[in-house]
Amino acid sequence: MPSCVLAYSGGLDTSVILGWLQDEGYDCHCVYVDVGQPCEDREAILKKAHDCGAKSARIVDVQEEMIRDFAFPVLQWQAKYEGIYLLGTSIARPIISKACLQVAREVGAEAFAHGATGKGNDQCRFQLAAEALDPTVKIIAPWRMKSFRDKFPGRTELIEFCDIKKIPVKASASKPYSSDENCLHISYEAGDLEEVDNCGVKVPDFGMGVSPQEAPDAVEEVSIGFEAGVPVSVNGKKLSALDVVQTLNTIAGRNGVGRIDIVENRFVGMKSRGVYEAPGITTLYAAHLQLEQLTLDRDLVNLRDRISPEVARDVYYGFWYTPKMDALLAFIKEAQKPVTGEIKLGLYKGNIEVHGRKAEHSLYDAEIASMEGGGSYDQTDAEGFLRLQGLPSRVQGTVRPRSY
């Protein structure tokens, strides 16, 4: 029999896909890739996969790797899709594909199956990553197949299939929206949020923190340490990459930090409304930017800022495993070498204030910048500087006088 690896969550969709793949003649190896999604009993998920006929089932925990090798380089780029979205879901998908392809190689499976729909971005991220890692892999995306959609036009048919196959699922009423969580963020979309006039901050089940209105009435200070642009400590305590993010999720979450509401342009062409909460990574972006202001020179920052939106687009679209991304990651690693120090922030009802800055390689010189007399800056030097800078304008003004 042909075999495939299924990116498996144990929920309704992937449970149905597991049964359907077996009906289609596949041996299925289920892989639950742990990126920090909430789950009460992971062992129960594995048992469910085995009980439903999976050839094998396993959990692969990639949280530390995802933060260290994927999220932090994107942070170093200060990359935000369309100026606001911090790419929490986009970052998770290529490492899920990588984990599934590693299992496929181990078990000799020739196909990779996933439950992403034909309307969303995740299908792009899964497939582009998988084919880059293994150009020979067969991608099975049931929701893009007419035969699958004809058999399962709606939720009712999915539940009926589970009843026939004796697949245990929680057949609860649909939520007024759809959510997806990992250790970086939670996204909320669909349902009531498809009406763009509905208020996004009224999502009833925000899971990573309180609203700004419910946050404490006092500022909470937090210090974040960096080495070469990589976050390494919180409040003076050295932590792993994952622990940095989780610690800040707790601290920033209880202060109402990190909620956004965006109408974004999906890779497939449509506009989509999403509400996100990402307290920890939002705080890291703010601290990292402050430290860069001390340690990076103007032209390097300007170059980074010009390229950053393109990095965000490539991550959002799913072009992670490409020569271009390899080169961009190598560039930012070199550029971030002086970004070492500590930033103290004040968190207050969704706001982030700067309370202090320290940097080992600070380019800030108080004597040069001082408004007081003296210092090492000679203001008369500016005369020649401005005469040279203004030369093209003076020539243009002579040849083509402007009205005023």
Automatic annotation (TrEMBL):
Keywords from the UniProt entry: Amino-acid biosynthesis, Arginine biosynthesis, ATP-binding, Cytoplasm, Ligase, Nucleotide-binding
Pathway involvement of the protein, from the record: Amino-acid biosynthesis; L-arginine biosynthesis; L-arginine from L-ornithine and carbamoyl phosphate: step 2/3
Domain of life: Bacteria
Subcellular location: Cytoplasm
A cellular component term, taken from the record's GO annotations: cytoplasm
Any one Gene Ontology molecular-function term assigned to this protein's record: ATP binding
Biological processes annotated in GO: argininosuccinate metabolic process; L-arginine biosynthetic process; urea cycle
Binding site for ATP: A7, Y8, S9, G10, G11, L12, D13, T14, S15, G115
SUPFAM superfamilies cross-referenced by the UniProt entry: Adenine nucleotide alpha hydrolases-like (SSF52402), Argininosuccinate synthetase, C-terminal domain (SSF69864)
Residues that hold L-citrulline according to the record: Y85, S90, N121, R125, S178, S187, E264, Y276
Arginosuccinate synthase-like N-terminal domain: residues covered: 4-168
Residues annotated as domain Arginosuccinate synthase C-terminal: 177-395
Catalysis performed (reactions): L-citrulline + L-aspartate + ATP = 2-(N(omega)-L-arginino)succinate + AMP + diphosphate + H(+)
EC number of the protein: 6.3.4.5
InterPro entries, per the entry: Arginosuc_syn_C, Arginosuc_syn_N, Arginosuc_synth, Arginosuc_synth_CS, Arginosuc_synth_type_1_subfam, AS_cat/multimer_dom_body, Rossmann-like_a/b/a_fold
Residues at which L-aspartate binds: T117, N121, D122
UniProt xrefs under HAMAP family: Arg_succ_synth_type1
Self-association state and partner proteins as the record states: Homotetramer.
Family: Belongs to the argininosuccinate synthase family. Type 1 subfamily.
PANTHER family in alphabetical order: ARGININOSUCCINATE SYNTHASE (PTHR11587:SF2)
Name of protein: Argininosuccinate synthase
Protein's organism: Botrimarina colliarenosi
